[in-house]
Amino acid sequence: GQSLEQPSEVTAVEGAIVQINCTYQTSGFYGLSWYQQHDGGAPTFLSYNGLDGLEETGRFSSFLSRSDSYGYLLLQELQMKDSASYFCAGLYSSASKIIFGSGTRLSIRP
Amino acid sequence: DAGVIQSPRHEVTEMGQEVTLRCKPISGHNSLFWYRQTMMRGLELLIYFNNNVPIDDSGMPEDRFSAKMPNASFSTLKIQPSEPRDSAVYFCASSLASQLNTEAFFGQGTRLTVV
Question: Are the Cβ atoms of A45 and B105 closer than 8 angstroms?
Answer without folding.
Answer: yes
